[in-house]
Amino acid sequence: MASLSESLIIEGVNAGDQSGISVSGIGDFNGDNISDLVIGSHQADPNGTSSGQAHVVFGKSLFPIDPETGQQYQPGQLIVEFNAGVTEAEIQAIATANGATSVENIIPSESSLAQDFAQWRILNFDLATDLVPIQNNLANNNQLNVSSFDYIVSINALPALPNDTDFNDLWGLHNTGQTGGTVDADIDAPEAWCKQKGDHDIVVAVIDTGIDYNHPDLASNMWINAGEIAGNGMDDDGNGYMDDIYGYDFHNTDSDPWDDHSHGTHVAGTISAEGNNNSGVIGVSPNVSLMALKSFSAGGFGSTSNIINSLQYAIDNGADVVNASFGGGGYNAAFDAMIGAANSAGVLFVAAAGNFNNDNDVTPFYPANYTQPNVISVAATDHNDNKAGFSHYGSTTVDLGAPGVNIRSTLPGNSYGYNSGTSMAAPYVSGAAALLLAEDPSLTPAQIITELMNNTDPVPGLSGITVSGGRLNVNEALMSVGPIGNNAPIINNNILQTGTWRLDVSVGDINNPPNDFQPPVFIDPDGDGMHYTATLLGGGPLPGWLSFSQDNAFNSDDDVIYFTGTPPASQTFPITIELTATDCWGASTNHIFSINQYIDGYGQGDVHFKTFDGRRYDMQDDGEFIFIQSSSGDWQIQTRQEPWVYNPTRASVNTAFATEMDGNTVIYDMDNPTNQKLQINGVNITLNSGQSYNVGNSIIERNSSNKYTFRYAGPD
């Protein structure tokens, strides 16, 4: 069979008396629009033991239309269900009497879990056969329960956006406003990953155009059929399909579900692109497995029967979640029933709501509008938490929203690109469901839907037009499900933390010498991430003149302890610190220790307690004035230098003055320099205008005005 290109359309061979059929393309082909090209394909036996139906290409005008629903359907095929008790011989007789050329079972083997479909068949006819009178005749046959057309379905994605470097941020996972959107208009993925990144035992089946299973961001997460031996031409595991390693291609009826379009690979990357591999993107659930079920052509179109077969494969081969980023065609009883079979098997069905800004409450859109309890329908939102302009909606039929505009993900050929559509929103929900199942594998589809729906972020753009009125928040849903058996961090007193941990205590506006300390190592038994907070406790023997107040425990930068008191001479006193390690679920462990703190001078003002990374330090903002008084009644200034070398220098006079901070410069403004004396470390210094004096690593000079300037000159 020839491959698709923009200039050559496929030729095909019918199993009947028509051979060498070829149909030219209509206009230009770009694979995105149904008016360009659709491909119908089916073959009777996935193991190739019968001739079946050929692959034939049709332009839109050649597709027949169901006169009752107005939906296009696959030429040459009907989907029927015979009543219980109708024998195989009777089925063949009815098929032959109605002009069918062959009959296929929907389930491929007796081991299939979908045994409720034992009486379902696909009847194949010559492509030119008018199926309307046959459909009417079969509908009145008392040996049949259901007879329906095989409706055409489309992946229905919006055109891809340019692969521009300005679009290289995954705003849907973590929105900082980097694309001009609203901060936190995202699913809170990093917060969720701190708790759970997925499990390879959880399988998400992607019914789509296939997956590039060699893509470096997808290869390690592909589902592998452990019961099959690749390339031996046998059905080793007896599931009805030979050599099905990564899944199956139901469009071309072979074992290679390679993506010849791009849509399926893009969807797969959003669900489970590998994370922390220094390459490309990361999926919502970066450790779950991806089952590739190709049901669509290189042009993005497929038949309902192919999708039914794909869903049956997912059920039989252990999928936990099915992603359905497609839609179209009318209601189909067999499709509906197979989704119900998936529910009975514990398989969640995630469906894209549609891309034509329609109200699904008024005009049903399938499969999103199927009412089986395992179906969750997903609208698309943009980076401002608005409903995407193209997205379908429905106050009773569309459940929640998820990011679906300008979504970057994987593309075939080791590349990446952008797409928009509810097709892009659905995999966010599929990935989120997989994370919940990784945390609690016992969850049923109905329970997953409840957790996802009850833990959305309410957004005005979805209020009143979706069931939940909100956009997906996977972290909140995960918090509601877990933790399952979470353990708090533990302390290993035999191992000290690496690097420099630094305590910086400022009393008033004076920065006192920092204390280095090495707390013990905290270990989280579950591998969860941890963050640290420090609290200054009041139980230690603080000096009698010094007291402080503190509202709550606090983090590194913004919180304040207020000290009051009149200090005596400089002194050292012990203080007690509580260091707390908290995991992502909120479980914590405390370590309390004491260190000696040197206090030199005191000033009225805010006091900050911090832990540091080795170079951060606390100073007043530029232009602020600081009033400092020592215990002797003289006025003094103390500076702290960087890097962390404590070598304080004091300049004092016998009356009040103010200081102004300016980077590494402190300016002293004396009231009356003529009558006041300047002391540097106890030595009287007289400086005329323009003269300077070296003090250790610093220089003090008098300028032409009534100011002395102190500049830090460099480290020891």
From TrEMBL:
<feature type="active site" description="Charge relay system">
    <location>
        <position position="208"/>
    </location>
</feature>
<keyword id="KW-0720">Serine protease</keyword>
<keyword id="KW-0732">Signal</keyword>
<dbReference type="InterPro" id="IPR051048">
    <property type="entry name" value="Peptidase_S8/S53_subtilisin"/>
</dbReference>
<dbReference type="GO" id="GO:0005509">
    <property type="term" value="F:calcium ion binding"/>
</dbReference>
<dbReference type="InterPro" id="IPR023828">
    <property type="entry name" value="Peptidase_S8_Ser-AS"/>
</dbReference>
<dbReference type="GO" id="GO:0006508">
    <property type="term" value="P:proteolysis"/>
</dbReference>
<dbReference type="InterPro" id="IPR022398">
    <property type="entry name" value="Peptidase_S8_His-AS"/>
</dbReference>
<dbReference type="GO" id="GO:0004252">
    <property type="term" value="F:serine-type endopeptidase activity"/>
</dbReference>
<dbReference type="InterPro" id="IPR023827">
    <property type="entry name" value="Peptidase_S8_Asp-AS"/>
</dbReference>
<comment type="similarity">
    <text>Belongs to the peptidase S8 family.</text>
</comment>
<keyword id="KW-0677">Repeat</keyword>
<dbReference type="InterPro" id="IPR015500">
    <property type="entry name" value="Peptidase_S8_subtilisin-rel"/>
</dbReference>
<dbReference type="InterPro" id="IPR034204">
    <property type="entry name" value="PfSUB1-like_cat_dom"/>
</dbReference>
<keyword id="KW-0378">Hydrolase</keyword>
<keyword id="KW-0325">Glycoprotein</keyword>
<dbReference type="GO" id="GO:0016020">
    <property type="term" value="C:membrane"/>
</dbReference>
<dbReference type="InterPro" id="IPR028994">
    <property type="entry name" value="Integrin_alpha_N"/>
</dbReference>
<dbReference type="InterPro" id="IPR001846">
    <property type="entry name" value="VWF_type-D"/>
</dbReference>
<dbReference type="Pfam" id="PF01839">
    <property type="entry name" value="FG-GAP"/>
</dbReference>
<dbReference type="InterPro" id="IPR015919">
    <property type="entry name" value="Cadherin-like_sf"/>
</dbReference>
<feature type="active site" description="Charge relay system">
    <location>
        <position position="263"/>
    </location>
</feature>
<dbReference type="Pfam" id="PF22148">
    <property type="entry name" value="Fervidolysin_NPro-like"/>
</dbReference>
<dbReference type="Pfam" id="PF00094">
    <property type="entry name" value="VWD"/>
</dbReference>
<dbReference type="InterPro" id="IPR006644">
    <property type="entry name" value="Cadg"/>
</dbReference>
<dbReference type="InterPro" id="IPR036852">
    <property type="entry name" value="Peptidase_S8/S53_dom_sf"/>
</dbReference>
<feature type="domain" description="VWFD">
    <location>
        <begin position="599"/>
        <end position="716"/>
    </location>
</feature>
<dbReference type="GO" id="GO:0007229">
    <property type="term" value="P:integrin-mediated signaling pathway"/>
</dbReference>
<dbReference type="InterPro" id="IPR013783">
    <property type="entry name" value="Ig-like_fold"/>
</dbReference>
<dbReference type="InterPro" id="IPR013517">
    <property type="entry name" value="FG-GAP"/>
</dbReference>
<dbReference type="InterPro" id="IPR000209">
    <property type="entry name" value="Peptidase_S8/S53_dom"/>
</dbReference>
<dbReference type="Pfam" id="PF00082">
    <property type="entry name" value="Peptidase_S8"/>
</dbReference>
<dbReference type="Pfam" id="PF05345">
    <property type="entry name" value="He_PIG"/>
</dbReference>
<protein>
    <submittedName>
        <fullName>Peptidase S8 and S53, subtilisin, kexin, sedolisin:Integrins alpha chain</fullName>
    </submittedName>
</protein>
<dbReference type="InterPro" id="IPR054399">
    <property type="entry name" value="Fervidolysin-like_N_prodom"/>
</dbReference>
<feature type="active site" description="Charge relay system">
    <location>
        <position position="423"/>
    </location>
</feature>
<keyword id="KW-0645">Protease</keyword>
<dbReference type="InterPro" id="IPR013519">
    <property type="entry name" value="Int_alpha_beta-p"/>
</dbReference>
